[in-house]
Every structure is written in structure tokens, then in C-alpha cells.
Fold:
Amino acid sequence: MDSATPIALARGVRLQWEPAQQARVLLYPEGMVQLNESAGEILALCDGRTLADLIDELSRRFPDADIADDVVEFLTDARSQGWVQWEEQGHEH
Structure:
């Protein structure tokens, strides 16, 4: 994944605030997962913006944190879970 890679929630996955749990949850065909605050912040920005834009926005929100590596690691894991999607450079849809 490079910095120009657009990232979005995977098809069939929805992010929403769950008042009863006071947390964001990710709904997908296999079930639901309650997210911690960091995961919710990252996934809320997975709307087709590039990795660079996503990291820039999070850096503005959390200026004291060095987050780039953690964001890439989380997104890689989220992709393996089927929560987000992106096209590898050089691959067409």
C-alpha cells in the first residue's frame, strides 16, 4: 500500500455509533465488532480518501502522536479481516 492508495470500507461493511455501548461498531455480514476509540477514528476516515490524506487528518486530530506506522499496521490487519479494501498498485478492479 502506498500513500496514494484510496481506502474504503469493504462492501457490506457499515460503521455506526452504538449508544448502548457508547462506542462505534462495525457491522458486517458475519456479525458485529465493537471498536476501541482509535480503531473507530481510523475506520471513520476510510471513505475513499488516500492513505496520505487519512494519516494527515489523524495527525491534525492527534498532533502529539506519531501514528503513521500504527495506522498502516491497523489497516493491513483490517483488510485481512475483510473490513476495508483497496486496490494494490498496478492492479485493476
